[in-house]
Write a structure and sequence with these properties.
- The chain has helices spanning 12-22, 40-50, 67-83, 98-120, 123-132, 134-138, 142-153, 160-177, 181-195, 201-215, 221-235, 251-258; strands at 5-9, 31-33, 54-57, 88-91.
- By secondary structure, it is α/β, with parallel strands linked by helices.
- The chain is globular, with a radius of gyration of 20 Å.
- The mean pLDDT is 85.
- 61% of the residues lie in helices and 6% in strands.
Length: 264
């Protein structure tokens, strides 16, 4: 599964850096220069052909803060939002922020996985997809997560095509809410609930404290998830093991950014 990310930039060097650094993990469909004199009609046609899940916009710098670039960037963002509301959008500068980067890549890879399942087009594939994303959905929106579950259950016996259509609409709505600390804490607590009876008192107290540290912004979500997954493996929790939340996108992407080699 290789999601497609479209990068727009006025700097050829930034495009080259992005492409070379992330090429092992992301299939860059189209690299467009902001300063290209592409009219709006042709731009929309390019965007519709791209079939992408993520858009990286340039950030303000000495090289690209000219007013015409800023306005064109805003127009492109508006166009993308209208034409492809499912797409995750971030600036190149915000990719350097760990939490914003997590939200962006989680969104991008989740969409790519869904479209892969949609291409398969089977009820079982959708059921497994939904089951494995349950706790990731928790991080976004409880009510919409439950609504997606009802769509998969299909009590009205809709056609499979209608089921996928309804699921996609609600999934996009869920993603547009974004992840929150409150909802993510709720997800982590629910996962811990499955493990708590298997843990000795000392380990249980440590896990509770770690989740609370995340709630207060003192610990990263990845840190809590690593601790939870270690207990999943130790206690052989078959239900929790395949949950996508443990690796919503390849850890190797984080290693790329942590290495400080990415300069956009």
């Amino acid at each position: 599964m290789r999601p497609t990310v479209l990068m727009l930039s006025s700097q050829a060097a930034a495009l080259s850096t992005f492409k070379e650094t992330l090429a092992p993990w992301l299939n860059i469909y189209k690299l467009c220069l902001i300063e290209q004199s592409m009219d709006e009609e042709n731009l929309q046609a390019e965007l519709l052909r791209a079939n992408f899940q993520g858009l990286v916009l340039p950030h303000a710098s000495e090289q690209n803060e000219e007013e015409y670039v800023r306005r064109r960037t805003q127009r492109i963002q508006t166009t993308v939002t209208q034409l492809v509301p499912s797409v995750a959008i971030i600036t190149a500068g915000d990719l350097q922020d760990a939490s914003l980067r997590e939200a962006f890549f989680t969104h991008v890879f989740l969409l790519a996985r869904f479209y892969e399942v949609k291409a398969i087009g089977s009820a079982r594939a959708l059921m497994l997809f939904h089951s494995h994303h349950k706790y990731l959905y928790f991080c976004y929106h409880q009510r919409l997560k439950d609504q997606l579950g009802r769509i998969v259950a299909n009590p009205k016996k809709l056609s499979l095509t209608e089921v996928f259509q309804h699921y996609e609409v609600i999934l996009i709505e869920l993603l547009q809410h974004g992840m929150s600390i409150k909802n993510s804490t709720n997800a982590l607590q629910h996962m811990f609930g499955y493990l708590s009876k298997e843990l000795p008192a000392k380990e249980k107290a440590a896990m509770i404290a770690l989740i609370d540290d995340f709630r207060q912004g003192k610990a990263a979500k990845k840190e809590v998830l690593r601790a939870l997954y270690a207990e999943v493996e130790r206690t052989n929790q078959a239900f929790l093991r395949p949950q996508v939340i443990f690796e919503a996108y390849p850890d190797s992407l984080e290693e790329v950014f942590d290495s400080s080699n990415v300069i956009l």
